[in-house]
Write a structure and sequence with these properties.
This protein is of the alpha+beta class. The chain contains one helix and four strands; from the N terminus they run E-E-E-E-H.
Length: about 90
């Protein structure tokens, strides 16, 4: 029986996370990597400096969505444009 291929320990996971702001839904791709100390680290490439983390994958994704919403709120508050990756 052939041996199953396993994913490398440092593999990146790419997900799309939607954030609703002013009745619009913005969808951003995030990079999720296992953290050296455990858990996961999340980066949002389209939003410079927008990072999050979590002990589980689900927690990391939920925290990333909250970080994205806070980031967009800050941009709006300061009159800056919101980067749009995908508009649904």
């Amino acid at each position: 029986m052939p041996k199953r291929a396993t994913r490398p320990k440092r593999a990146k996971i790419r997900r799309r996370i939607a954030s609703t702001r002013n009745l619009k839904t913005y969808t951003y791709t995030v990079n999720i990597e296992p953290a050296v100390e455990g858990g996961f680290v999340v980066q949002v490439p389209l939003l410079p400096g927008c990072y999050s983390q979590g002990e589980s994958l689900q927690e990391a994704i939920a925290n990333a969505q909250e970080a994205i919403e806070s980031y967009l709120e800050s941009l709006s508050k300061h009159g800056e444009r919101i980067p749009i990756a995908s508009f649904v």
